[in-house]
Amino acid sequence: MDKYLVLARKYRPQQFSEIIGQEHVATTLANAIKSNRVAHAYIFSGPKGIGKTTIARILAKALNCKHGPTPQPCDKCVSCEEIIRGNSMDVLEIDGASNRGIDEIRELRENVKFGASGGKYKIYIIDEVHMLTTEAFNALLKTLEEPPEHVKFFFATTELNDVPATIVSRCQRFELRRITHAMITEQLSGIAKNEKIKIPAETLSTIARYANGSMRDALSTLDKLIAYSGTEIVHTEALDILGVVDKDLLFDISNAVLKSDIDKALAITSNLFDKGKDIEQFLLDLINHFRNILLSKYSADTQKLIELSKDDVDKIIESGKQFTQSQLVEIINMLAQLQNELRWALSKRTTFEVGMVKLIRVRSKIGLDQLVERLEAMENNLNSSGYTARESFTAVEEPVIKEEVISAAKPTTPVQPDDLFAKINASWQNVLLEIGRVSPLLKTYLAEGSPVELKGETLSIGFAPANTLHQETLSKQNYKETLEKKFKDIFGTSIKLNFKLVEVAAKPKAQQPQKTIDSPLVEKVRAKFGAKIIGVKA
User: Fold this and answer.
1) What is the SS3 assignment for 20?
2) Considering the domain 181-242 in this protein, what is its CATH number?
3) CA 257/CA 226 separation, integer angstroms
4) Cα 454 to Cα 495: distance, rounded to the nearest angstrom
5) How many helices (H) and strands (E) does the chain have?
6) Which helix (H) or strand (E) holds 432?
7) Which helix (H) or strand (E) holds 173?
8) Which string of DSSP letters, residue by residue, matches 353-414?
9) Dihedral, CA atoms, 51, 53, 57, 60, nearest 10 degrees?
10) What share of the chain has pLDDT > 70, as a percent?
């Protein structure tokens, strides 16, 4: 019987051209070999399973190949074959986790004095180098800075921040990326075809999704499914084996939220627990699902941001049209809070069910932006019924700008016509609504200020000292340019914006009898919000 070799080893890349997802690294190293500019030390960083040690081994082969140094090692000479088998005397792989002490590094320092036995270089590959002790790093430092000409160091780490800066600064550094969903799916498809395995495309996509950018994890998962199912893999069986849920359930949950269907959500929850699914993984998937829906509302090219099939992305976009931005943000925050609560919950099922009930009710809540719009609509109804803005009810005290700080009410030498400033003031709420369509964040910040002066083309908008953050944020060039463009669109003329801090003072309380309003519309507003009329401005 032939010795079984796991897929991750069987299909490990042996040439720079076979490396997927890290072409920027492979190309740079190949060019360095061609131009004879290979550094004495390299450090490869990034998540697990993306090819750090694989690239180090290919580079070692390229340098020690009988025909090298060459960017295309032959894989047939003695040196190449020994490196592939892992028994080369000139390429020493050290596990930084188990050989992390100063004694091991002292031994390494003694051995570097001796030349290579067969190849051109003696190469040290230290995996998880961040695990070395401080003393070990200090012992390595001098050798790393001035190694013998025949010695090369290749380091791999998942935690670059834990490697001392003194070590990193003496290496050429390469940051490897997570491999994309599409690349993993394509690679798995080719391997399955080569291994004569029948597997649905949706199963390959699921494997890629849960591999989280790791090619090694994806191949290990495929190995697991083949061991269970043989040469023909059924998607539903694959989901049960992996303990994950079908992506359709995620859409079922978001649809239940849209329809406020608590029964549907609780039925899905019950099914998950009864089948022993990984509920924390499902919750993470649900967070990513609503994250995708949120991104779809703002991105012109959603396909680039969401690693799903085109059909699934289309469904995501359609879902996004039915949620508001504030609802999606609240949903994601609620799920993140539920994620934290589950870690300490004595009854995970009960905690999760309560979380689902809260989630379903989110659509019935009135968001702040919706509340403002309703109030403005009611105010317009009141005005159209014969009541002017001066007859609308206000608080007894309201902040006003001191005349000694800025004389906005009576500009002495106006450059622009007086009616433009009056027009801006009169339509300020509509201006905020228009800006909110471009950026809800800018609308929120701008709403804390008010127009105070127009000189020439420059409109000054004042903020109370308590709102310094809003004034400073809006003064940033990119935000300022966005707002100036919108103001020009609204008023048809170029307007420069100036955001400034102004002092505010309270108006003295009016000493006059309170007026009443005998109006069905006012009564309707009062009843709607449970409000109390505290005064009427004459």
Assistant:
1) coil
2) 1.10.8.60
3) 37
4) 9
5) 25, 10
6) helix 428-438
7) strand 172-175
8) HHHHHHHHGGGGSPPHHHHHHHHHHHHHHHHHTT--GGGS---S--EEE-TTT---SS-SS-
9) 120
10) 82
Report the pLDDT value the prediction gives residue 396, as an integer from 0 to 100. Answer: 35
For residue 390, count CB atoms less than 10 angstroms from its CB and return exposed for 0-12, middle for 13-18, buried for 19 or more.
Answer: exposed
C-beta atoms surrounding 393 within 10 Å: 17
Collapsing DSSP states into helix, strand and coil, what is residue 532? coil
Rounded to an integer, what distance in angstroms lies between the CA atom of residue 62 and that of residue 56? Answer: 10
Q: Is the pLDDT of residue 167 over 50?
A: yes
Fold of 247-364: Zinc Finger, Delta Prime; domain 3 (1.20.272)
Distances (CA, A) of 87 to 5, 82, 92, 125, 154: 17, 5, 8, 13, 17
Tell me which residue of 502, 516, 423, 425 sits closest to 462, measured CA to CA: 502
Distance from CA of residue 299 to its chain's centroid? Answer: 13
DSSP state of 514: P
Query: 7-175: what fold?
Result: Rossmann fold (3.40.50)
pLDDT score, position 173: 94
Q: Is residue 332 a contact partner of residue 294, using CB atoms and an 8 Å limit?
A: yes
CA distance 23 to 413: 64
Distance of CA 490 to the CA centre of its chain: 34
Query: Measuring CA to CA, which residue among 297, 304, 287, 282 is closest to residue 180?
Result: 304
Locate the domains of the chain by residue range: 7-175, 181-242, 247-364, 399-506
Amino acid identity, position 418: D
Other Cβ atoms within 10 Å of 388 Cβ, number: 8
In angstroms, rounded to a whole number, what is the distance separating the alpha carbons of residues 494 and 256? Answer: 47
Angle at 56 between CA 51 and CA 57, to 5 degrees: 100
Give the per-residue pLDDT at 508: 43
Instruction: Convert the pLDDT of each residue in 250-297 to its tens digit.
Output: 999 999 998 888 899 899 999 888 888 888 888 988 999 999 899 888
Q: 272: closest CA among 288, 249, 251?
A: 249
Ramachandran region, residue 40 (left: φ > 0; alpha: ψ -120 to 50; beta: rest): alpha
**In this predicted model, what pLDDT tens digit does every residue of 387-431 receive, in sequence order?**
444 343 333 333 343 333 333 333 444 454 567 888 888 889 888
Angle formed by the axes of helices 348-360 and 262-274, nearest 10°: 160
Assign a CATH topology to domain 399-506: GMP Synthetase; Chain A, domain 3 (3.30.300)
- Residue 519 CA to residue 99 CA, distance in Å, equals 84
Which tokens in the block code for residue 475?
Answer: 């003064």
DSSP E strands, 256-374: none
**pLDDT tens, residue by residue, 218-242:** 999 999 999 988 889 999 888 888 8
